[in-house]
Amino acid sequence: MSERKLRLLIGKVGLDGHDRGAKIIARALRDAGYEVIYTGLHQTPEQVVATALQEDVDAIGLSILSGAHNTLFPKVIRLLREKDASDIVVFGGGIIPDEDIPGLLEAGVAKIFTPGTSTADVVRFLKEEVEPRRLALATWPPAPEGLPENGRRALRFAPAVSIRDRPSPGLPQDTRTR
Asked: How distant, in Å, are the alpha carbons of 51, 83, 102, 137, 139 from that of 2?
């Protein structure tokens, strides 16, 4: 199996209109060798989770300055769990009061970065916490021969429907093989 780069999604959820910090983090992570997808401003938690699943990311970094972190961060985590994607690590940053951090960590946010955190600290967190998780998921259980790199998550989300259960387009019902 070829080694693929860690895929990260940097998201701006809610009505927060300031994205300089998110762009700085996105660029620093790209420069550190990660593959980074930036969502842009004014995303809903549903949009962030949908993008994360479509892009098969390993982690989501949320940036928020509006004060809605106690609502939006847990909602992203809940949506990931509902989509059977709780293996995607969620971390965040922005203007988050110290007294709110324990509740966010308890809700499932892996790490909160506050103003003044160096980009090197964020990279160190990814190397120490996220990369080992992805490696563990990538090697267990063993993938079937020829499965593409993103096939593990694709298999997990694939519906369990046999091709025989679906009508054949353009053929009369009685000519299908049973």
From this structure: 24, 27, 38, 15, 12
